[in-house]
Amino acid sequence: MQKTKYVTEQAVCQTTLHVESTILELDENGLTIMQRQKRFACQNSLEIRYLHVLWAEATKEQLTIHYAAERHKTLNATRKVFQLLDQGTSPRIQAWVQLLLDRAYGDSKARKNLKIYLNPFSGKGSAVKLYYRYAEPLFKAARCQIDLHETSHSGHASQLVREDRNIDACDAIVCCSGDGLPYEVINGIALRDDAGHILRNVPVVQLPGGSGNAMCVNMFKTTSFSHAALYTIKGIRQPIDLMSVTQGDKRYISFLSQSVGLLAECDLDTENMRFLGGKRFAVGFLQRLFSPPVYGCELAVYNSTSQPDPYADHPGCQTNEQSRGLPHLQFGSVNDILPDSWKREHHPTLGIFFAGQFPFVDAISKVFPDARPDDGLVDIIMVDSGIGAWKLVQLFKRVPEGNHLAMREVHHRKVAAYRVTPVRTRGAFSIDGERSSFQPFQVEVHPQLGMTLVTPVGAEEHRLGHN
Which GO terms describe its cellular component (predicted)? Predict the structure, then answer.
């Protein structure tokens, strides 16, 4: 706790609070605390950005300001306490506190109700330690209401969200894990009768506790655990597209990507190397560099930029009970006959098929640089297996900067729906980084079916940061 200081009510005005030898000033950038030295004319100054102000309150005896202090690129919950000589509950002091909070939170809701799912097995297995060290102190300082659940097995989070009767009352579902837990949570919600209502209204966010952490990187522009926690507290609601993936008689909801071939193998076949974190993908790539797999397939795409409105045939149905479920499949499932409006292609020597709706698929791989999470389209990248080792290395060296699309060996397009029919009977196929059965599948985009939080104005990028 900081040294106590004393404030008198008579010095309180609209944006300035005088505390004997200290002045608390609210300006356009944040809170400035200036303390004059008694024996010298100089003054010490502490500037706290509004983004970092977590909470403030004035009781009869004291004024307390909670904020996130940054040191070595890590945020820690800190507070300053000022003893009050006069009534701290007076209207003028309370008005100053409220003005500080209004500027600190802006368009974001204060004191969020957070439903937190913590996966102790994700990534290197450090998610629990990271949460309690870096996230929970910030959540508590911001007066967030926390409902914490530690998952014990695969599918546990899916079961919890499916059975939670009060899930629509929370302000965000926080997945402390890799990308597998958001996928599990979203697909658990998809099994509810009110799936559409929950997906559109309850934000799903990620604290980076795994290997990929793509949701966090794309939404919060960081891999820092403490910064992701702050952005959860201060985040702004943002609708995003989701995708339906149909296989056989099953339907999955994808928020990130679908992958077939080399990249899918580098991910799925290195699960036994999770102790390496994100480096396991590089190991998988090097193992296949000189003998890349061949994944021939039949591809069909619907590339109209004017995707049908899911509610076009049901005027006003967004307000009835039926609309609370998942939207109808406008293009049918993988079992339906393809309409003539789809373009069919044959790719007998395909090596890489990757489709996604966010720029980053992990902390450093900007695979889809032109992707937008709310444009109603999915980006597709295809590379032939005969590209050669040298060109393949050049491709992956370009991915972090996102300029690999300029290579003539990389074929890129945006579509509203597509179908892949593999030639092989066995192989690697992943949805959002999770292994799925290797068989024909069809994908269609649902514009703005999902909801998440994004960084507030003024947040800086800490993608390759500390905790």
Answer: cytoplasm; membrane
pLDDT digits (tens, 9 = 90+) for 117-154: 999 887 677 889 999 999 999 999 999 999 999 999 99
174 and 159, same domain (yes or no) = yes
**Chosen domain end from 40, 73, 105:** 105
Helices (DSSP H) in 55-113: which residue ranges? Answer: 91-105
Within a 13 Å sphere around the CA of 408, how many CA atoms are in the beta-carbon half? Answer: 0
CATH assignment at residue 383: 2.60.200.40
pLDDT tens readout for residues 46-97: 899 999 999 999 988 889 999 999 998 899 999 999 887 766 567 888 889 9
What share of residues in the chain are helix, strand, coil (percent, to 5)? 30, 35, 40
Residues 221, 54: Cα–Cα separation, whole Å: 20
Q: What is the pLDDT of residues 169-221, one digit of tens each?
A: 999 999 999 999 999 999 999 999 999 999 999 999 999 998 789 999 999 99
Q: Verify that 212 and 92 share a domain, yes or no.
A: no
Write down the residue that tokens 């190397």 correspond to: 273
Strand runs (DSSP E) across 151-288, as ranges? 172-177, 204-208, 236-247, 250-254, 257-261
Q: Which residues pair with 148 in a beta bridge?
A: 116
Total residues found in the chain within this entry: 467
Which residue shows structure tokens 């505390």? Answer: 19
Beta sheet of 434-435, edge-to-edge order? 410-415, 378-384, 350-356, 257-261, 429-431, 434-435
Instruction: Please give the model's pTM, rounded to 2 decimal places.
Output: 0.89
71 contacts: CB under 8 Å, gap ≥ 6: none
Q: What is the separation, in whole angstroms, between the first and last Cα of the chain?
A: 23
* Residue 150 CB-half CA count within 13 A: 9
Examine the domain organization and report whether 395 and 300 are in the same domain.
Answer: yes
Shared domain for 232 and 261, answered yes or no, is no
Q: What angle do CA 95, 96, 101 make, to 5 degrees?
A: 95
Out of 76, 105, 134, a domain closes at 105
Q: Which of 253, 230, 240 is nearest to 201 (CA)?
A: 240
CB neighbour burial string for 211-241, b if at least 16 within 10 angstroms, e if fewer: bbbbbbbbbbbbbbbbbbbbbbbbbbbbbbb
Residue 99 burial (C-beta neighbours within 10 Å; 0-12, 13-18, 19+): middle
The answer to whether residues 245 and 441 touch, using CB atoms and an 8 Å cutoff, is: yes
